[in-house]
Amino acid sequence: MLLDPLHLSALSAILRHGSFDAAAAELAVTPSAISQRIRALEDRIGATLIHRGSPCTGTPAGLRIARYAEDVGLLEAQLVRELTLEQEPRSARVRIAVPADSLATWFVDAMAQVPDMLFDLVIDDQDHSADWLRRGEVSAAVTVGGQTVTGCDAIPLGVLRYLPTASPEFINTWFRDKVTEAELGKAPCLVFNQKDGLQRAWIVQHTGKRLTPPSHFLPSSHGFVDAAIAGLGWGMNPAALVQEALKHGLLRPIVPDAPLDVALSWQVGRVLAPALKPLTQAVKRASERILLLPQSS
Hints:
The protein is α/β, with parallel strands linked by helices. The chain contains 12 helices and 11 strands. Strands 3, 4, 5, 6, 9, 10 and 11 form a 7-stranded mixed beta sheet that branches. Strands 1-2 form a two-stranded antiparallel ribbon. A two-stranded parallel ribbon has the order 7-8. Strand 7, helix 9 and strand 8 (215-217) form a beta-alpha-beta unit. The chain starts with a helix and ends in a 9-residue tail after the last helix.
């Protein structure tokens, strides 16, 4: 089934901006023209593609077709580059699942190295970013090392080291003598979101026990560090984010020399791997500056 590129661009623009008016402004057409294109595409597919609302959101079929349109754009951009058909080829858009801590520590550097690409990032916990690939909702993802998603190429990147950190005042209040199972069960900890298992994983590594301490939920990597400095709780912070705070005594490890190392991989859909090769190379370069080699853990 051949789909009209104008219809696909209208769908992608609506889902990107959340409204027909904003999509019309991006594509330099009237909102009426956008509506006509979406109706024609829905008639062609035989299914509703957009939930009309504020903002507009995609149905499962709409999201899948929008992803298809972005994939086609990536492949077309690759062809244009290879054949030098345009002096200034248009930017291709890619949707990627990235853990918040990778975005905060090294992934922006990778993005900056590919100026001819537009990014649509999905931020999710690193243990779950691979799920976006399995569902076909992204073209690539930074995932926890392990099983390769079917249909993807996986490149090991290295280890992101986490340190269990808290303010000196918090440590003096809750862990004055030592960090035991009893104290860990009572001391407030910081949790990124309901999917975040880093604190629990470190507790198991340190005590061998599964505990459920009282928790603050803070879905921000930098906010996580700020909350630890403020004494709200202890949490697993990327070593790269807390170097300065540790240096100036704003934070301390609650247990010295007890990191939690998380191995990361870059996974990209095999069909799109050639088109995303410049991004893959940038990801490898940027991650090498922050991530550790696995054997150093």
